[in-house]
Amino acid sequence: MQFRLGPPGILIALALSCLAAPSAEAATKPRQTAAAPVITAVAERHDVPRLARTVGNVLASATVQIKSQVEGRVLEAPFTEGQMVKAGDLLFRIDPRPFQAELEQAQALLARDQALLDQAKLELARQKDLSARGVASTQRYEQAQADAKSLTASVAADAAFAANAKLKLGYSEIRSPITGKTGAIQIHPGNLVKANGDTPMVTVSAIEPVRVAVTLPQQLLPILQERMKEGGTKLLINVPGEHGATLTGAVDFVGDAVDALSGTIAVRATVPNTDHSLVPGQFVTASLVLEILKDVIVVPFEAVNTGQHGSYVYIVDPDNKAQTRSVRVLYADGGIAALEGEVAPGDAVVIDGQLRLAPDVAVTKVVADKAKP
Known about the structure:
4 domains, 4-stranded antiparallel sheet, 5 helices, elongated
C-alpha cells in the first residue's frame, strides 16, 4: 500500500479536525452543572421599630446632699458607704444632749409662766368681781387685766421656744429623705459638723428608677412631637456588659428649645432599673423608637442586593433553583431589613453565595437562623 504525502499544512489541519470532532455519544450527552452552595434564611413577618440611635447619659431620678441643720459632734453613722437605704432610715446621729437640755429649759420656763398665768387669771376674776361691787378700784382691775395678757404672751413665747428646742433635738438624728444608694461619707463620726455646712455629709441618689438623657437632631423633632401626641414613645437602652440585654423606658420629657450650637433637642426617659444595672453618670447606647412598621417582611440585611433596576433578593424555589425577587427596603438596622415587594413569609432567601447565582441556577442550600427584628 502506498501513501502520498501532501503539503504539510493539509496534514496538520486533518489532525486538528480529528481532535476537535466529538464522538456521537458525547454530542448527545447533556452537560452537567454543579449546584451552587448557598446559605439561606427564612423570611418572616414582624412589626419592626424604626429607631434613632444615639448616646445617652444615665441620671439619678433624685439626688439629695445630706447636711446637718444643727451644730454638734457626730456620734455615729449606722450605715455602710454605697448601701441602699430607704426613706426614713437613720444616717447620722449628732450628740443630742445640748438640745435635750435646751428643751428641758424651755419646758421649765413654759411651766413657770403657765403657773403665773393661772394665778393672774384668778386675780383678774377676783378684781373684776370687786370692781363690779365697787369695793376695788378700777385701776387695780385694769392692772390685773394687763398682767394676765402679759403672762399669756409669755406662755405663748415659751411654747414656741420649747417647740423650737424639740425641733433641734429631732434634727440630731439625720434620716434619709428618699430611697436610694449612699455615696462616700464626707464627715465621719467624731467630727464637729456645722449647721448647713458647705460640705455634704453624704449624698443619696435614687437609682430605681433612673433617667436616661439623650440628644436628638432637630430634624427628628416633628416625628417625636407626633409620637408624643399619640401617647408617647419609648427609649431602648443597651445594658453595658450584658450581651443582648435591653432596658425600656418611657419618654417623659422633651426639651423646650433646640440648642443653637449643636442643633439638637434634649430628651429624657425614665427607666425602672430594678436590677441596678444602670449607674448615674454612665454613658449608654440608646435608641429612640420613632415609629413601628406594622406587619412587614423581615430578612437578614445580607440578603438584599442592588442592581440596575433597584434592590432584589435571591430566593430558592421548591425545585432548589435560584430566582430573583424585586423588593424595596423600608428600613434596615441591627442586621435586619424590613421589605415590601415580591417576597413572602417562609421564602428561603439567600444570605451568602449570591455571586455564584443567576436565575434558574441549581443550588445546594444550608438554612441559617431565622431573621429577627
